[in-house]
From TrEMBL:
It comes from Desulfosporosinus orientis (strain ATCC 19365 / DSM 765 / NCIMB 8382 / VKM B-1628 / Singapore I) (Desulfotomaculum orientis). Keywords: DNA-binding, Transcription, Transcription regulation. This is Transcriptional regulator. Residues 1-58 form the HTH lysR-type domain. Belongs to the LysR transcriptional regulatory family. One of its GO terms (molecular function) is DNA-binding transcription factor activity. Gene3D superfamilies: Periplasmic binding protein-like II (3.40.190.10), Winged helix-like DNA-binding domain superfamily/Winged helix DNA-binding domain (1.10.10.10). Pfam families: HTH_1, LysR_substrate.
Length: 308
């Protein structure tokens, strides 16, 4: 149970829903309301206007929310630095990740943990989402990050950062001349897909089915790196995470095309066995991930892209 009005306020604002905030913080609905009211009494101003379960920030609430976020981030940073002074974290941590995360995000998080906790030994495994989930389920991994949906009742699942899926096409492709496309433009195309078991493949299959797209031909590749190279080579079009094609887009080696009326997103998930006791090594790794998650989008992007 969280008894921190500042944390409660920020969680409520981010969910824009009192019940969902209460559920995440393991609080009762009245307890959440009480903590918000105590902040308002302390500040002498109304922070939120609520109707039923939906709420909107007042002007004062907008200001307070921005500072509250910064305070919580600084608190977490202070706790980490104090912890480093008081004890040395040791141990071995087995971390898994699906390909997109494992190739483009995980190395930087591991580097951060290694810099702060040099006594922690980290072993990493990268595979498709299905294989990583099985490895966590079988206790071969302590913790993992995946990009597909997780439907295992014996695993703890925490949604992390948002991932944008975009349509990429070869520069010489007819679609590359269009500023925006509809599902009609995507009919009878050659598609580059990931292998079955991949979170990106599941996402692509679902959308192609939902949009009623007739696929002329497919080519299957076992990694995001291979998919983007196939698109660059002119083999076909693909739906990919923006993470994996940032450099190619900047270098104009391939083209990203907007799909009319649609912004495609999914969540990255942090998973682990529910029955596993959290070691210090697992705890500090999770703290680094949560610190990254709690950063604003622009700050998070700078954090990662600065290490490209």
């Amino acid at each position: 149970m969280i008894n921190d009005p500042l944390k409660t306020f920020v969680t409520v604002v981010e969910h824009k829903n009192l019940s969902r905030a209460a559920e995440e913080l393991y609080l009762t609905h009245p307890n959440v309301i009480s903590q918000i009211q105590s902040l308002e009494e302390e500040l002498g101003t109304k922070l939120v206007d609520s109707t039923s379960n939906h709420l909107e920030l007042t002007e004062s609430g907008e200001i307070y929310y921005q500072y509250a976020k910064q305070i919580l981030i600084l608190q977490d940073k202070a706790k980490q630095e104090i912890k480093q002074l008081s004890n040395v974290v040791t141990g071995t941590l087995k971390v898994g990740a699906s390909y997109t995360i494992g190739e483009y995000i995980l190395p930087f998080v591991v580097a951060d943990v290694a810099a702060h906790y040099p006594k922690v030994e980290i072993e990493t495994s990268i595979a498709n989402t299905e294989e990583i989930i099985k490895a966590v389920h079988d206790h071969h991994l302590n913790i993992a990050l995946v990009e597909g949906e997780v439907n295992c009742s014996d695993l703890s699942v925490h949604p992390m950062m948002e991932d944008e899926i975009i349509l990429v096409v070869p520069n010489q492709h007819p679609l590359a001349r269009l500023p925006i496309v509809t599902s009609e433009h995507l009919q009878d195309q050659v598609w580059i897909l990931r292998e079955c078991g991949s979170g990106t493949r599941a996402f692509s299959d679902k959308l192609i089915k939902e949009w009623g797209i007739k696929v002329r031909k497919t080519y299957i590749f076992g990694s995001g790196q291979a998919v983007k190279q196939a698109v660059t080579a002119g083999l076909g079009i693909a739906l990919v995470s923006r993470w994996i094609v940032r450099k190619e887009l900047n270098a104009k080696e391939l083209k990203s095309i907007r799909i009319k009326g649609k912004r495609l997103t999914r969540s990255f998930y942090l998973i682990g066995p529910k029955d596993q006791e959290m070691t210090e090594a697992t705890e500090v790794f999770t703290e680094q991930l949560l610190a990254l998650e709690s950063s604003s989008g622009k700050k998070r992007d700078r954090y990662l892209t600065s290490k490209d």
